[in-house]
Amino acid sequence: MNMQQQTQTASTMTGGQPLNHGAHEMFDVHEVLSCQIDVLNSYMMLRAFVKDQELLDILDRQYNFMLEHYNLTCQCFKTGQKPARETGTYIIPNMTQPVYGFQPAEPSKPNQSMADVKDAGISSLMLGHIKSHASLLAIASSEVTNPTLRRVLSAQVQEFVEMAYELFLYQNKNAYYQVPQLQTSVMQQMLDAYVPAAGAPQMPANNGGAALH
């Protein structure tokens, strides 16, 4: 065995355990797992203040899904191998259509006491956590070198997007998250601002890296 092979073996196996992770991804995955714990802990703390049964059902469903995938990610990160279970698909049980428009509402302000903690604020906190973690998963998965861990992280991005949409629909239905629209003429102009490419592009010949003149 030559020196290069010895170095590679030492860097990938310790006590029979594969260490097939790059240095940068170690920090990224630590951040993912740490932030996932923060989200789970926040959900647990918020649960005590939820009044609406529908929001409570959403919180419990999302918590259980996230906890399962936290465990999957931990296992995959630790072993560098495919986890015992596949990543799952998050299903919104009662999909509704968004309500567009903007109605007058009370201006927002910070809570003055615990009596001000309401479902509107709780669902907003939940949505913020989920959207932030979806972004973090997308960024981290593009940096991970271990192919299995990369897929485990990237597979969760869409599921967090779904959870965020479920919370948006809940907020939207209760007028916590309103969706104003542009004037029809402006919207139509923006919709017409792009068209598909027509025909086959005429790609230039490769010049082998020679400078363009």
UniProtKB/TrEMBL annotation:
It comes from the Bacteria. One of its GO terms (biological process) is sporulation resulting in formation of a cellular spore. The keyword Lipid biosynthesis does not apply. Signal peptide: none annotated. It is found in: Spore coat. Keywords: Capsid protein, Sporulation, Virion. InterPro entries: Ferritin-like, Spore_coat_CotF-like. This is Spore coat protein F-like protein YhcQ. It comes from Paenibacillus albidus.
